[in-house]
Amino acid sequence: MGIIIGIVLILAVAAFFAVMTCKSKHSDLFRWLLIAIFVAICITWVVPYGYFNGATYGEVAMKRIGLADLPSLLYYAAYFGLTTIIYLFILGGFYGILSKTKSYSALVSKIAKKLKGKENIFMVVTSSVIIILSSLLKSTFALLVFVPFIVSILLSMGQSKLTTFAVTFGSILAGLCGATYGSDGLYFLNYYMSTELTSGLSYRAIIAACALVAYEGLLIFKLTRKSNKKAKEDSSSEVDPYSAVEVKGKVSTWPIIVVFSILFVYLVLGYTAWMTNWKIEIFANFHKWITELKIGKEFTLFSYILGSGAVEFGKFEITALVSMLMVLSAVVAFMSKFKFQEFLTSFGEGAKKMLKPVCLFVLVYVVFIVAYTSPFIPALSNWAFGLTKTFNPYITSVLAFITSIFHADLGYTGYAVGGFINASYASDITLVQTIYVATYGLAQILMPVSGVLMVGLSYLKIDYKQWFKYIWMFAAVMFAVLLILATIVYY
């Protein structure tokens, strides 16, 4: 097993550096993902289908992925990511409408002008807020709801697209490195490891604080370098998919301010797990009251208006944000006096601009589906954990990082190895949990198999190599922080 894994890793590293050194002026995002898919498929040919039943490891016959399996990989990738795909298209449609309104354009222009001379302060503060929200809120993709707006402001301020990416998409991913109460899969990771949210919370808080300081330090360092001065083409309308229309004269901006205020309150209330994380019952009680409120003897009007899928604040899934964006799109179009055909055209054009990011997102999930349909991570984990008689935090850290490359879903990692970890390393379970959460965040911000990363790079037309050169130092520092923390805690 060791020889096989060594050969696969050598091939993967060789492919990585081959693409890194390939000179191409065109976007290489699809190429990176196709290589990741190819590597994942190759692994299924040499590593068996494994599983854990408590501390016991078992194997099924090899389940190699072949040519006839490729269509089903795409199908299941789209199926697993369907709600996020719909969300991205609706988000694009929402900004397609906003970008055609004078109020939105005036607001972007006004903010950019008011912050002239204070650009660095604005970017550091904005980045810090995004990192904190990413660490706290339960949905990573939900934070994208404000990203196109912030992107338009930063590009209007004259910032480079790489800096703009770092402040927005990059900050979301930096927050995942120290997911304290947030991240999509943290709940299920805890469920399968039989741990609590508060398990290892102090460790994750330390990593979150270090991630915040390290990321903002990197951002400030990059901002103060002369090389940050962007090329002229960076500010063109070709960079910003939703560049604002030209505005002449005085235009009221309050309607758009109200819309974004509603969205922010909705985001914080809906995606902060009030009951689970903070034991705050007010929203659960309010939801129960409003849905059971009767008009007459039996008619629960508000429960019918909200729908059977309505849940209390704190339990929102991404579909709740989809509903709100659709409603607000109609409201903005109505306030801007759009004709129905103009509304459909603007919404459709905006959604169309999300087509390439969505395709990349689906390919990210293809990598995950390969590891899902032919589970090779348990076999790799069994081999790696078996290298030492006792728990080794360094081997675990490397293993967890590799696992996170193939598992876009942190919760599925818990399903695949959580039972074994709980049964075998119960005394060190909080440290193991911290390692898996932190390395998941590192893989998401560094490797080209991250949904948010690939969507963002595509959105701003940035090659992966540019981002890797920008962020590798942060990833190295955070991995060192994790190893130092693990050493102090364990030894």
Strands of the biggest beta sheet: in what spatial order?
1-2
User: Overall 3D geometry?
Assistant: globular
Number of strands: 2
Radius of gyration: 23 Å
Main β-sheet description: 2 strands, antiparallel
Uncertain regions: pLDDT < 50 for 5+ in a row?
227-233
The arrangement of helices and strands along the chain is HHEEHHHHHHHHHHHHHHHHHHHHH
What share of residues are in beta strands? under 5%
Proportion of helical residues = 55-70%
Distance between the termini: 29 Å
Give the class from helix and strand content and strand pairing. mainly alpha
> Averaging pLDDT over every residue, what do you get?
91
Enumerate how many helices there are, as a single number: 23
Explain the layout of strands and helices.
Elements: H1 2-20, H2 29-46, E1 49-53, E2 56-60, H3 70-80, H4 82-98, H5 102-114, H6 119-136, H7 147-156, H8 161-177, H9 186-193, H10 201-224, H11 254-271, H12 274-278, H13 282-292, H14 301-306, H15 318-335, H16 340-352, H17 355-373, H18 377-385, H19 393-406, H20 410-424, H21 429-446, H22 451-459, H23 464-490
Antiparallel strand pairs: 1-2
Helix pairs in contact: 1-2, 2-17, 3-17, 4-15, 4-16, 5-7, 6-8, 6-10, 7-8, 8-10, 8-21, 8-22, 9-20, 10-21, 10-23, 11-15, 17-22, 18-19, 19-21, 21-23
